[in-house]
Amino acid sequence: MKYLIIVCLCLAICAGTASGQAGAIRIAIDDTGSYCPGVIDNGGLIQLYFFHVDHGGATLSAWKLDLQGLPWTHLGDSIIGVTIGTTISGISIGYRSCLSAPTYLGFASFIGSNAPSCSIIRFVPCSDCISGKIESVDCDPRNPTKLFPIGEATLINPDPEFCANPACGPVPVNPTTWGAVKALYK
């Protein structure tokens, strides 16, 4: 009997920890979730699509989009769910129910500025995120747990020679010799 109680207790602890997968907040270039090769800024309309990916079920996320100094004009957000704030000032999004990954969150529209090659935008914690991290909440109705997803960065005007996204395909290589490689570390 004691053995059965110990096994049940261990299973309950493991199940509780397995459900708390935070995942990541990702920028895509379309509403299907594609993120390759990156965002192209030619000075016209840019739409960034937001996804919460690789999580074990979530009901909320809170984050801010950091444009890293790009002089883009924010036209507005079209976010699915209940929101407080905007994507560039900091936003909290209630998903209205427990959703599994990948969760499409909506999009934001901008007028671009012909950004330099290899520019980066990324997610950062919102100013209301008390933890100082990007936040989400799992689906446990009795004991909701705050989780901390990763905020992924995205390339603007990627240049295959200097800043290709490694997740988007093969990375170019240059033929060389073993002696040339060793010479780099002398």
Keyword list:
single chain, 186 residues, mainly beta, seven-stranded antiparallel beta sheet, five-stranded mixed beta sheet, 2 helices, 12% helix, disordered N terminus
Descriptive notes:
With 186 residues, the chain is mostly beta strands. It has one domain (20-161): Immunoglobulin-like (Sandwich). The chain is 12% helix and 38% strand. The chain has helices at 2-18, 178-183; strands at 24-28, 45-53, 58-66, 73-79, 82-86, 90-99, 103-111, 119-124, 135-137, 146-147, 150-151, 153-156. Strands 3, 5, 6, 8, 9, 10 and 12 form a seven-stranded antiparallel β-sheet that branches. Strands 4-7-2-1-11 form a five-stranded mixed β-sheet, with no helix packed on it. Strand 5 (82-86) and strand 6 (90-99) form a beta hairpin. The longest helix is centred in the N-terminal third of the chain and has 17 residues, at 2-18.
Helix content: 10-25%
Provide a count of the helices: 2
Question: What structural category do the secondary elements indicate?
Answer: mainly beta
Q: Rg, please?
A: 21 Å
- Range of strand content: 35-45%
Poorly predicted ranges (pLDDT <50, ≥5 residues)? 1-19
CATH class: Mainly Beta
Specify the biggest β-sheet: 7 strands, antiparallel
Q: Tell me the total number of β-strands.
A: 12
Mean pLDDT: 84
Shape descriptor reads globular
Order of helices and strands: HEEEEEEEEEEEEH
CATH architecture: Sandwich
**Total tally of structural domains:** 1
Could you tell me the CATH topology label.
Immunoglobulin-like
Distance between the termini: 66 Å
Q: How would you sum up this structure in a few lines?
A:
With 186 residues, the chain is mainly beta.
